[in-house]
UniProtKB/TrEMBL annotation:
Alphabetized Gene3D superfamilies for the sequence: Medium-chain alcohol dehydrogenases, catalytic domain (3.90.180.10), NAD(P)-binding Rossmann-like Domain (3.40.50.720)
Record keywords, A-Z: NADP, Oxidoreductase
The protein, known as: Enoyl reductase (ER) domain-containing protein
Taxonomic lineage from the root: Bacteria, Bacillati, Actinomycetota, Actinomycetes, Kitasatosporales
Domain Enoyl reductase (ER), residue spans: 2-238
Length: 241
């Protein structure tokens, strides 16, 4: 977080530099591989849900790209907070995974989901991890005062072309963005995120956050192959023996 792996080299080094403002104490008996799943993904998902989207119990939320590692963390946190969650995947075979995490329903991900989803115009929030290709469609699903958070780009990073809010944006909806690179900067202290409480909920099994795969450092090529083939099925961790 805070630029690690972007402006600060060393994601795959045994030692690296981290900003002191991004060092957080987590007291836990979880093994390292399970702890490693938490910070980036859960801090980001938590911030999107409870800061950008201001989710409250009983609200109905769509998470697009819900089977991604980030999406699964968001489903976990939102369900645990008492929200009604609808998760999307392009693959019906992955609906069972989302149901295990507690979604009320899974929907097939497609660019015009707003035209098909029964809750259209009544939704409180959309967390959009598919990204620029779907965010306008996500805005079209919201009720007045509803919020969309754009925080992932699984569908590609091409800019949104010919976006004319007058013609394409519903009145009274909110569009927000969040990127984890701001953690540790003024206005975005990491202490805002309840990492200790999240780790405790993981340890207690209330959040299902085990890594989908754990690789040895020597097998990092295989980790990349799995990730690039879309076979990760959740958060993958690399450990040094
Ligand atoms: N804002 C931030 O700070 C932040 C932080 C972390 C990650 N991210 C972003 O969040 C996204 C998810 O990251 P991740 O590491 O969790 O991903 P991941 O686990 O690698 O996600 C893989 C899943 O994404 C879905 N997917 C792949 N291509 C897709 C497409 N073209 N359209 C729709 N769904 C597609 C597939 O699910 P199905 O086959 O089930 O559809 C796939 O299994 C990425 O875009 C990443 O850059 C943002």
């Amino acid at each position: 977080m805070g630029g690690l792996g972007r402006t600060i080299n060393g994601s795959y080094a045994e030692y690296t530099r981290a900003s002191a403002s991004n060092v957080a104490l987590i007291e836990s008996d979880l093994p390292w591989a399970e702890l490693a799943v938490i910070p980036e993904t859960y801090a980001t998902a938590w911030t999107c849900l409870f800061r950008n989207l201001e989710i409250t119990p009983g609200q109905t939320l769509v998470i697009r790209g819900a089977t991604s590692a980030f999406g699964q963390a968001a489903v976990n946190l939102a369900v645990n907070a008492g929200a009604r969650v609808i998760g999307t995947s392009r693959n019906r075979e992955r609906f069972a995974l989302l149901e295990e995490l507690g979604v009320e329903r899974a929907e097939l991900e497609e660019p015009h989901l707003s035209e098909r989803i029964p809750e259209a115009k009544r939704l409180d929030a959309v967390l959009d991890l598919v990204g620029n290709t779907t965010i306008l469609d996500s805005l079209a699903m919201l009720r007045r005062g509803g919020r969309a958070c754009l925080a992932g780009w699984l569908g590609g990073l091409d800019p949104i072309r010919d976006f004319n809010p007058l013609l394409q944006m519903a009145s009274g909806v909110h569009l927000t963005f969040f990127g984890s690179f701001v953690f540790g900067t003024p206005g975005f202290p990491l202490s805002d995120v309840p990492l200790q409480a999240i780790a405790e909920q993981v340890a207690a099994g209330r959040l299902k956050a085990k890594p989908s795969r754990v690789f040895r450092f020597e097998d990092i090529h295989e980790a990349h192959r799995v990730m690039e083939a879309g076979e990760g099925k959740g958060k993958m961790v690399v450990v040094l023996d």
